[in-house]
Amino acid sequence: MTNSAIAVLDIDGTLIDSNYQHALAWYRALRSVGEIFPVWRLHRLIGMGGDQVVAAIGGDDLERRVGDQAREQQGKEVDALLDEMAPLPGARDLLLAIKERGHRLVLASSAQERHVDVFLDKLDARDIVDAWTSSADVEASKPAPDLLHVALQKVDAPPDASSVMIGDSVWDVKAAKKAGLPTIVVRSGGFGDDELRAAGAIAIYDTPADLTEALAETPLA
């Protein structure tokens, strides 16, 4: 079992249908500090860690002026939208299928701890997964590879352990590439197949359910 590839899964957008709510939460948070950006531009950044979104959308000066305030408000906006977020089709079944194949399983999330707790409950996953992460575990989030390194540490695996990332955004793929992990992607992140493949995705599926059906064709066979 310990020689099997370790499955490292993103939660937001990959297992939980939450990307569009996060984009709206960022829009509202930034608007609360007097900054308005098109929601479509914010959506393009979802999957990137919250510590990097403000600078990515508005530059380093905006980050210095309102970054902490915007992040705090964004967390509150997400709190208000949690009831609208639900597991994507087949999300829990994917976790079960991976475990049944003998793989260790880590949920690598850069979400705030209280949100990760809610998502774990929505997935009823606490007794399935071996470990999970949150934003509290790293200083630099995706597309930096730090979160994936921590995810492997959570299961006492070395950085070069045989591992596979499952995500939904180019930011997942880029982080995994830096960490040396191949990435399988579901389309719920809203990115085009060409973008995902250009970033390095090795396979793309519509939903977790579709990936479950095709597991035998992946490195998690």
Residue-averaged pLDDT: 95
**Count of helical regions:** 10
Helix fraction bin:
40-55%
Distance between the termini: 13 Å
Low-confidence stretches: none
So what's the oligomer here? single chain
Question: What characterizes the major β-sheet?
Answer: 6 strands, parallel
Shape: globular
Total DSSP E strands: 8
Order of helices and strands: EEHHHHEHEHEHEHEHEH
The radius of gyration over CA amounts to 16 Å
Strand content: 5-15%
Strand order of the largest sheet: 5-4-1-6-7-8
Structural class: alpha/beta
Describe the structure.
The chain is an alpha/beta fold. Helices cover 47% and strands 12% of the residues. The chain contains ten helices and eight strands. The chain has a six-stranded parallel sheet with strand order 5-4-1-6-7-8, with helices on both faces. A two-stranded antiparallel sheet has the order 2-3. Strand 4, helix 6 (113-123) and strand 5 (131-132) form a beta-alpha-beta unit. Helix 1 crosses helix 4 (60-81).
List keywords for this structure.
221 residues; alpha/beta; 6-stranded parallel sheet; two-stranded antiparallel sheet; globular
